[in-house]
Amino acid sequence: MTEKIKGTCMECGKRGKVWQIREELVLCDDCADELDWIQCDICGDFYPWDDVEFTELEDGRKVCEYCMEDL
């Protein structure tokens, strides 16, 4: 599961709690949203919106295609 860490956003330079989305990519909430990274509400991993299919469940959770296979 991806968790927030203390650091600096590689996109805007904002310091504070950021997401380590990939080993080489660290983004704040705003930049992750702006660059269309989506976090799965089950596994917590981030995916680019155009690489992985997401399903929105009735309870509002956004779930990646990999977790949907297990549901």
Explain this structure.
This protein is α+β, with helices and mostly antiparallel strands. It has a single domain (4-70), classed as Cysteine Rich Protein. Helix content is 17%, strand content 39%. It has helices at residues 29-34, 65-70, and strands at 4-8, 15-22, 25-27, 37-39, 46-48, 54-56, 62-64. The strands form three sheets. A three-stranded antiparallel β-sheet has the order 1-2-3. Strands 4-5 form a two-stranded antiparallel ribbon. Strands 6-7 form a two-stranded antiparallel sheet. A hairpin with a 5-residue loop joins β6 and β7. The longest helix is centred in the middle third of the chain and has 6 residues, at 29-34. The two termini are 17 Å apart. The model has no long low-confidence stretch (mean pLDDT 94).
CATH architecture: Ribbon
- Specify the oligomeric state: single chain
Category by helix and strand content = alpha+beta
Q: How large a portion of the residues is in β-strands, by DSSP E?
A: 35-45%
How are the strands of the biggest sheet laid out side by side?
Answer: 1-2-3
- Which stretches of 5+ consecutive residues score pLDDT under 50? none
CATH topology: Cysteine Rich Protein
In DSSP terms (H or I, runs of 4 or more residues), the helix count works out at 2
* CATH hierarchy class name: Mainly Beta
Radius of gyration: 13 Å
Order of helices and strands: EEEHEEEEH
- Determine the mean pLDDT: 94
Distance between the termini: 17 Å
Major β-sheet, in short?
3 strands, antiparallel
Share of helical residues: 10-25%
In total, the number of domains comes to: 1
Instruction: Please tell me what the overall shape is.
Output: elongated
Count of beta strands: 7
